[in-house]
Design a protein that fits this description.
There is one protein chain. By secondary structure, the protein is α/β, with parallel strands linked by helices. It has 2 domains: 3-94, Zincin-like, CATH 3.30.2010; 103-213, Metalloproteases ("zincins"), catalytic domain (Zincin-like, 2-Layer Sandwich), CATH 3.30.2010.10. The protein is built from 7 helices and 8 strands. Strands 1-3-2 form a 3-stranded mixed beta sheet, with helices on one face. It has a 3-stranded mixed beta sheet with strand order 4-6-5, covered by helices on one side. A two-stranded antiparallel ribbon has the order 7-8. A hairpin with a 2-residue loop joins strand 7 (176-178) and strand 8. Helix 1 packs across helix 2 (56-70) and helix 5 runs antiparallel to helix 6. It starts with a helix and ends in a 14-residue tail after the last helix. The structure holds zinc ion. Zinc ion is lined by residues 166, 170, 184-185.
Length: 227
């Protein structure tokens, strides 16, 4: 079965399939990652090797999700395969290997897990990201990883724990998928987030840290006057 063609035709039954295809599994992409390249004649798909043993019906959902991206469909819709795929992604964290940790983040994880989740959350990969002031912290379902911006490396533990809490809520609540869109900060998520003690004060302090880390603009250069 040509998975790309199969995915395409289930997605667009009225359209003719007239593309060359290329499909490969590789080790270069990170865990459970995949990407698509598309030009008028050819559709190429690269999947991380971990996808190899996954059921074809789930893979078709993944490919359809990628196809909808490249064909830039405005009215995104869902298919049974896309729903299957999203259910699978929600459960990837239980399948991934835990290879990354860090003592400071691991301590934060343990405190938050105990205080707010009855130690129910399985420890994810924990890692410092870059010194980003836009992406403060994130949770990635594909490799079960919490990443925290290094601007918080010296922050007090209350702040680190609050960021950790937010990211673990993502792991806990997973996400909702509807009409081709994924929703992460659901009403329930926000309700739980608001339970955090001293939330407003901590957010103020986080904003102060962000401001301190903003790069001071260099002297305006000559050329910029002509813009
Ligand atoms: Zn979030």
């Amino acid at each position: 079965m040509n998975l790309i063609q199969e995915s395409f035709q289930r997605l667009f039954p009225e359209k003719e399939f007239s593309y060359q295809t290329y499909f490969e599994y590789n080790r270069r992409l990170s865990d459970f990652n995949a990407n698509i390249h598309f030009n008028r004649k050819k559709i190429s798909l690269h999947l991380n090797l971990q996808w190899k043993d996954i059921d074809n019906e789930i893979k078709i959902g993944l490919i359809q999700t990628l196809l909808l991206k490249v064909f830039k469909k405005k009215n995104k819709f869902s298919t049974p395969n896309i729903n299957l795929y999203n259910n699978f992604v929600r459960n990837i964290p239980t399948l991934t290997k835990k290879t990354k940790s860090d003592p400071t983040l691991a301590d934060s994880f343990s405190r938050v897990n105990q205080q707010f989740f009855f130690n129910q959350i399985e420890k994810p990969n924990l890692t410092w990201g870059r010194d980003s002031i836009r992406k403060l912290a994130s949770y990635n379902f594909h490799d079960d990883t919490v990443t925290v911006s290094t601007i918080f490396k010296d922050a007090k533990i209350e702040i680190l724990d609050y960021l950790m809490y937010h990211e673990l809520l993502h792991k806990y609540h997973k996400f909702k998928h509807k009409n081709g869109r994924s929703f992460f900060h659901t009403k329930q998520f926000k309700e739980d987030e608001n339970l955090y003690p001293n939330k407003n004060q901590l957010e103020k302090e986080i904003n102060q840290i962000i401001r301190r880390n903003k790069i001071v603009p260099k002297k305006q250069s000559f050329f910029s006057f002509f813009k």
